Amino acid sequence: MDLSLNWLKEFVDTGCTDPREFSEKMTMSGSKVEGYTLTAEEIDKVVVGKVLSIEKHPDADKLVVCQIDVGSETIQIVTGASNLTVGDLVPVALDGSSLPGGIRIKKGKLRGVSSFGMMCSLGELNLTQNDFPYAIENGIFVLQEDCKPGDNIVDVLNLDDTIVEFEITPNRQDCLSVIGLAREAAVTFNKPLKLHTPKVNERGGDINKYLSVKVTAPELCTRYMARVVKNIKIEPSPLWLRERLRSMGVRPINNIVDITNYVILEYGQPMHAFDYRFVKGKNIIVRTAENGEKITTLDDVERELTDKMLVIANNECAMAIGGVMGGEYSGITDDTTTIVFESACFYGPSIRNTSRALSLRTDASAKYEKGLDPQNCKEALERAAELIDILNCGEVVSGVIDVDNSNYTPATIKLEPEWINAFIGMDVSKEHMIKTLTDLDFKVENDIITVPSYRQDVLHKADIAEEIARFYGYDNIETTSLKGEVNAMLTPEQKGENKVQETLLACGYSEISTFSFISPKFYDKMLVPQNSPIRDSIKILNPLGEDTSIMRTFSLPSMMQVLATNYASRNMRAKLFEIATEYVKVKDEELPNEPKKIVIGAYGDDYDYFNLKGAVEELIFALNIKDFDIEPVSDIPWYHPGRCAKISLGGEKLGYIGEIHPTAVKNYGIGKKVYAATLDFATLLKYSVSEKEYHHMPRFPASTRDLALICDKDLPVVTIEKAINNAIPKLIEKVNLFDVYTGNQVESGKKSVAYSIVLRANDRTLTDEETEGAVKKILKSLKNIGAELRM
Amino acid sequence: MKNKINSVLANAKEKLQNAEDMQVLEELRVKYLGKKGELTGVLKQLGSLSPEERPKVGQLVNKAKQDLEEKIEEKVAEIKEAELQKNLEKEKIDVTMPGKRANIGYKHPLSQVLDELKEIFMGMGYSIADGPEIELDYYNFEALNLPKDHPARDTQDTFYISDNVLLRTQTSPVQVRVMEKQKPPIRIIAPGRVYRSDEVDANHSPLFHQIEGLAVDKGITMGDLKGTLETFAKRLYGEDAVVRFRPHHFPFTEPSAEMDIQCFSCGGKGCRLCKNEGWIEILGCGMVHPKVLENCGIDPEEYQGFAFGIGLERIVMRKFKIDDMRLLYENDIKFFESIK
Hints:
The structure holds two protein chains of two kinds.
Chain A: E1 2-4, H1 5-9, H2 19-28, E2 32-38, E3 44-57, E4 60-69, E5 74-79, E6 89-99, E7 103-105, E8 108-110, E9 113-115, E10 117-119, H3 153-156, E11 162-167, H4 178-188, H5 207-210, E12 212-215, E13 221-230, H6 239-247, H7 255-267, E14 271-275, E15 283-288, E16 294-296, E17 302-304, E18 310-313, E19 318-321, E20 325-326, E21 339-346, H8 348-357, H9 363-369, H10 376-390, E22 395-396, E23 401-404, E24 412-414, H11 417-424, H12 430-439, E25 443-445, E26 448-450, H13 461-472, H14 492-506, E27 510-511, E28 517-518, H15 521-525, E29 538-539, E30 550-551, H16 556-568, E31 574-581, E32 596-603, H17 609-622, E33 629-632, E34 639-649, E35 652-660, H18 662-667, E36 674-680, H19 681-686, E37 703-712, H20 717-727, E38 732-741, E39 750-759, H21 768-784, E40 788-789
Parallel strand pairs in A: 12-15, 27-31
Antiparallel strand pairs in A: 1-11, 2-11, 3-4, 3-6, 4-5, 6-7, 6-10, 8-9, 13-21, 13-22, 13-23, 14-21, 15-18, 16-17, 18-19, 19-20, 24-26, 25-26, 28-30, 29-30, 31-32, 32-36, 33-34, 34-35, 35-36, 37-39, 37-40, 38-39
Chain B: H1 2-18, H2 22-33, H3 38-44, H4 53-90, H5 109-123, E1 127-128, E2 134-136, H6 137-140, E3 165-167, H7 173-181, E4 186-195, E5 207-217, H8 222-237, E6 243-250, E7 253-262, E8 279-288, H9 290-295, E9 304-311, H10 312-320, H11 327-330, H12 333-338
Helix pairs in contact in B: 1-4, 2-4, 3-4, 5-10
């Protein structure tokens, strides 16, 4: 919302001349200023000049040499303009002057004749013909204002203004108007607000003979008021009115349209004018449209309506889309002679839906959307009628039509000064509270506050507290500390998450953060089968695009995407992890599960599967989990069938680790082998033991035996290790694999595996017999799984 | 005899002098002190001496042996020392060559700053709560005083899953979930992902992070809100950080405010960074709307509270002077390395 401070002055003299200070104070009382512009800032040393003579340029056919009286002196100016006559008053940019756009004017010579300045066109002063309809676009701006040579053009044309841009919050639609902001300014600067009550000069006749209004959708149109004006003379508005519109960024058009725009700006109440010729049957019917009904709006676009949309119709057809835009055929034209002024209030949500459905947002719809005050219709309509008289451009027919469905009763709230002071932490007297409220147009009688109709946001005593507090000044509220018991701690889950993060960082993996929504194509890239439950993702109804259209059930593709980004960015190696959320539908529940996954991904010439497995082992042991199960799996589509393992804790699947399938890697355009793990965080946490205790360091010596075994090539070593451990669990301290060999020295299809086994008892030194006995048991257990001592 | 001993000794000492390694030394030891060594040989000849001379010569030989042994020991030590020195010389390295680093990973910049924020608020007694990202309309809007058709819903362009389910547009629904479960006193922060349908550009992302804060207890005032957030700002930005609270509007707080921090770049005079305002918006906050308390089954006559919401990305970008939000989600290692 832009506000002209010149216009504001009509309602309140804030006494503040510094726009920065004005902005600061308004901001701090709740009307946030985004910035301001000094409109005449760029215009300097431009004065009114009178053309005394015009002579031909001696050396140029298209130039003339003029003598110009600029008040203090007479100067010579050479120009190419052809619209001048002796005696014209024109804007003159003197030597050393500046114009909008940072243009500087200096004296110079044109074809050998000295010129001491420049006569300005509308454009050079950043004006248009809409601002000064009597001037021409291409040529010098010949002034018709009351002025004399030497007068400052800024004053003559009323160009000096400050435009302050406000950010108005959606609860304060009333501040989308000059009067609304003036009220805020008056209370902020503690100055009187000078409101004006419009006086309408009714010229007789009876509106009911001209018009009747029927509202058939009262829930969508809470109030509809109308006046009729006859003997209209369509012409440009006077300078002061055009100036007002221009300062607030509205293009002047003609007096009637300008009046409606003026009232919108001043009161915040949208107005519409219909040409009475088109109110067929003298009837205005406010009704919902029929499905498929068509209307061509003022912007010359034909629009198809639905029965959810409100139209303002005559007996035959729709003349306007209520609260959004007028129809082309009923609009004001140069030969309009009688008009109907509409001042109405429509149901905000319905306007919003209509405006969205039609992709048609107007100043009016933007205002209506926020929910306007039906009680404001009347004064706005009266103001429009008054302006007709002030502009002397028509005769207002006596009488007003008012269809009021608003059922308005003012809201009341009890004034509780102690509660307010305690709630805010301040000490404001009851009298001062009453004064602030009264200044804001609230009525206070016997401790009962009556809320003005346009403050629909005030419903509760907390709202009253805010009104008091913002004018007391938030900065004046004393800062205090919370009292009471303080007890903050991390949950086991949060601790676990920190541990995971800390461990993987220490192992050299960098943390990434990826979008939770992905493209369904990600699943294709990862070779996820068509019938896989992974593809059953939650879909966003209104996504920004396909790339972010579903919520991931599977976070590995996001990791792959990041690895691909890094590969494309020519990073030779990457070791990454993410604690990622997945979104998994739950049958018969509205909300999905949101499990967290630990995703680890890496590539690089010095990186292989066992680096990845090592990191996963570090993670498991960092969470103080004693043991895990691992088994090879070959049926996970996105993994290399011979390089993938399932990891379990206590029989429960923790996740998969392995080399990503080369086809998937290729789909991501990565030119190196990629290794990745996805582990379920909740499962990891479930088996994490937070208690640790000291175990006595061994007091008796260990016996170490090395065993070279021979077994089938495909027998996983984990099976051998289990067999060793299970043989004599009490005595085995460590089983270290130190060599695996396949080749000429062993039978084909076999491999040799060498272990160093550390045996120890915690209460005695093992005898040779005991050790040998243990080895025999181990060998027997190994035999059961097909591993034998290598001879 | 005596002369012989002396000459053997002198001879041995001379050879010893010239010995350069342990092997020569060992040979000398055998040659003179061994079972068949020269000095031992002298002892064997004692029998041919007179009884008077025997002890004297014996003593002399023993002394010579002792003397020689000492000399040998000395020489051993000397040679060992020389060998050590030689080894040390050989082992010399260029100590300025690069170290072998463990290459620990980079914590994501969002996590780095979030950790800092968590630490600040935990220090003030706030626990950390969370809630679902895919949320019911009720928690995201209705319970927060934003009924269907409320105009403020428009300012938060929402991704919908169904009429009733959406991607949360703010972390505020966690407030409601916490208040439903926990009776006051409550002090929590709730960091998390939120979603709004903004196209990706240097300053916008359809997914970003907020940190919600909530305190509910008896007798909480807006002064407490100011005190808490001022402390937060000073811990995050330093003791000389200057903040201001300016009225604003959020449907679920009343009164509502935004907290600005005086522009660090220009000290409040106005510059490009602060768009000439002298202040930079940091967070939104306010006293929990009594209706919201009521919606959560907390009696607003008995309890009051305040709430605040901080946008993490903006704080991170300002802190590290990152000029493009997209970098945070691209996760290029080069970008992580560039924050130093």
